[in-house]
Request: fold
Amino acid sequence: MNLTFPFLLHQTICGAIAAAGFGVLFNIGFRSLPWCAASGALALAVRTYCLGLGWNLEAASFAAALTVGAAVQVLRARTDISQNALDVVGCIPMVPGSFAAKAILSMFALTSTSTGDASETLITAVQFALRVTFTIGAIGTGLAIPTLLLRVRVTR
Amino acid sequence: MDMIDSLIPDDSGSTPALEPMAMVALDAGRMLMESGASANSIDEIVAKFARGLGADRVDLRIGYASLAITIGIGPNGITRMREVGHLGVNQRLDQELWHLAEKVSRGDLSTEQTRAELTRLATQTPRHSAWVMAVAVGLACAAFGRLLKVDWAGTGPVFLAATLGQFFRRELLTRHVNVFICASLVSFLSSLFGGLGAHWAGSAQINMAMIASILLLVPGVPSVNALNDILEGHPTLGSARAVTVAVILIFVAAGLWFGQVLLSHLGIET
Reply:
């Protein structure tokens, strides 16, 4: 991927808007929304940068989630918002919803394609399904590692 | 034998404070779970409430649709269970519950005062208005659209379709429509409006605009919670969440598929 500063900025801003929008859906107060936007912006900036380095989507998503998880751990004392919500909201823009939809639509298509197209459709469906699984796994693991390493219980 | 006997909770009723204490702790856990918390957070907050109210021992079992607790003071103990309702996401309630847990763990509140506070939080925690939420979701989906390389002509229709979809979803959920049926209906409506709008706006990315319009339905929090729960030692709850996420995605995709079929019947190629 050809990484340019305008493209990185575009992805970062879109990540911030998506995270803040979902922050409202999750009933986060207006005063805490800038933290959500910052979390989403950081996630998309790191993911876009890593993709620009030639990493695959799963690895880039893992790196982004790990960064967001670590940043939220560091900043948890400064924000009046639960850590779980802040890092999940930040990573929401990376959840591969479009791949999930495409995977299931490809499976639907399997029932109606001719025999010649079936194997190609099946491979497409499996590829999308695997990407969804691995990407969600990468995001969840990336978020969990800082929490598991730096867990300080009962300090909210 | 004596040692084993001493570990068996005695449900003799000789310590009447245990019953309300257990139910208040369970209510706090239920409310947190319904607000979208992970299993470890629920475990933590229930322990805070129960110990803050005076329990010596607390053991919690977290299921997808119920919580069960055993608490004890000295030689007495009881086990109680509580049903858990629809698992949504409500960050402000989550936040308020943690503030209350701090007070309770410091011993500032009695069981009855804690129960009254929980009732107050359940009924009075503010929510954003339906229109604010709908517009915010519309903006988020439009941003998603840009991330999915939808062109600018398709971004406006995505915003409108997702805004309408969120408003429609809220209306359906307030009428207690089944969440899976709701996901399909909203997916169909949003994808149809997104696709039609993108076509009329001259977008070259009609299919991606349709997909971006339904991303409000992707259960992001449950899917991340599912993996967190498994990683943190709650595989049963994590698996249940993962299955629910998978079924919701199937219903969402079905709605999208119907939208695509209808558009193709109208002569619009997606």
